[in-house]
Structure formats: structure tokens, C-alpha cells
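thread: overnight batch results

M.L. [08:02]
morning all. the overnight job finished for the chain we discussed friday. pasting input first so we're all looking at the same thing
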Amino acid sequence: MNGPSYVVAVLGAGSEVGRELAAVLRERAFPVDVLRLYDDAPDDQVFDDDESGEEIFPLDEVELTGADVVFLCDHPARAAEWAARAATAGALVIDLTQVLAESGQAPLVVPEVNPGAIRTGLEVGMLATPVPSATALAVVLKPIHAAAELKRVVVTALEPASIAGRPGIDELSEQSRQLLSGVTPENRVFPQRIAFNLIPEVGDFLPGGRTRGEWLIESQLRSVLELPDLPITVTSVLTPTFFGQACATHVETEQSLDAAAATALLRQAPGVLLSDEPPGYPTLADVIGSEATHVGRVRDDLTVPYGLALWIAIDGLRKGAAVNAVQIAERALRERA
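M.L. [08:03]
and the structure it wrote out:
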């Protein structure tokens, strides 16, 4: 970006996504004049971020006066309070906690999909990024809808331990060691043992049997695609992986769009990286560190008149959260200038 530089604050900078966001700001050469990093600190003392050498200050020292952009990366219980303070101070708030989106205070944005929502968010000074699986699905399904009109979407979303932050990562690591040592593990973070297991429960159960994680993907995907009545059903599954999200996706369209045509379409789609060389699919190991949304195994679904089956994978911390948030900020600041 050319032009002025900005005072940027990251709240929750010590979380997994907060650290990733700080790294992305540096890598994309975001025009930062002053970077203020805040998170929990032992005994309210300043501590060092070993990866960047920058200081992370305690949350009780949060100073939002003069900030141009504020990223909310953790501590959802206080996100609304901080957002209100930041907006009052004239800062642009970008929420990665889901709090502002769920309350209707901020529109959800995936820049490759619904950049027009940025203007709406600028009116209130608040924007939000969806959950990673919703982001991945939106990037891939947008061009399919434009070409053939989506009729129905069915998804199995495979979620990593990092969906619960550092505690989730630690629990998977510790349980794996315990099981390999012949020790019966205890589960504190997840509802069942996560190591060497699959858990079809992401978030609390809601009336009707869906989980909150499934509801978030469904509702946020409709919002970003601007298709409020699109039939979507999601089954979310916790997997014994540390990072990366994958979605086994089946779509039915109103018009004909076969696998060959869809493959050609996705090869040119913004933000999409198509795996069409053998073996023809991305694994989670392949997508970690990537800013793209990866798709492969594009094939015809012969159970419906016009159907496709796809495998979608994304680095949830990176493109699914940090990169998407920084892209939102870049575009929003250009529009506001």
C-alpha cells in the first residue's frame, strides 16, 4: 500500500491468531507507523514476543487513543467493550473473535467475495472476518454461484485442535504423549478425547441438533455470499490435527456446470489455488503457510441433475483469519482515504 502510515493496535497479540496477524502485517508491508501489541502478561509486566522482538503489553494498559486500526484477536468477553472504545476514538475495528458479527455490529467480509460490505462497515467503523471454514467455502463457491447459481450446499467441515487456541493445541499434544506412553488421558478442553479420535461436536449443541460451530459456518457463508435463503447443511468434526481446515463439499446448482467447466473456472478464480496435478488434491500439510484457498478433487456428483463434489483446504490461522483481516484493513483504508 502507498500513502500514509498508521497506528495499529492488536488486542490478543499473544494468542495463536494474534501472533500470526502481527507476522502478516510485517510480511505484507502494511504501512505501520506504530504497532501496539497487547495481551495477558504475568504480574502485569511487559514481556517479549520471541518471534518478532516486539513488546507485548498487558491488557490493563490498553491505549486506543490515536489508533487508526484495532484488530480484536482474542478475549471475546471484552471485544464489544474494546470495539466501542476504539470506534469512539475514531479507529477502524476489525474483529476476529466473532463477537461483533454475531451481535450485528459489524458486517462479515471476505475481500475476494463481498468487498462491497466494506463500505457498510466503514459507516460504523467496524468490520469482521468469518470463521476459517466459512471463508474457505465462500472463496470457492462464489465463482460457482456466479456461473451456475447455487441451489444447495452440503459440507463436512474438518476442524483442528487450534480452533480452541493454545489450550486445544496443548491438549492434543499432551493426550498424544499420554496414549503413546500407555496412560489414560484426561480431556479438559474438548468434550471427548481428541488424540487419535474424531469428535462430531464443535461448540455447544443448539435446539434442533446442530452445534454452534455448524451454525456459524452456515449463517456466515450465507451472509458473505449474500444468499440469505441458500439451503446449507454442515457437519463439523474435530480432528486430531493441530492446524488447517478442510471441507468435503457437495454442491447442487440450478444450471449445468460439469467438473471440467468448474475446474477451468476455479483455476482463474481470485484467491483460489487449484490442485489439478497428481495426486489432484491438497492436504493440510500442503496448505500451512499459504495465503490461498486450496481446492482439488473436483468431480461430478451424479446423484443430482447438476452437482459437483470438491475438497477444499485452508490454513485457518493464516488466510482463514490473519490474512483475511489484514486484506480487509488494506481495502478499507484505501476506501476511507
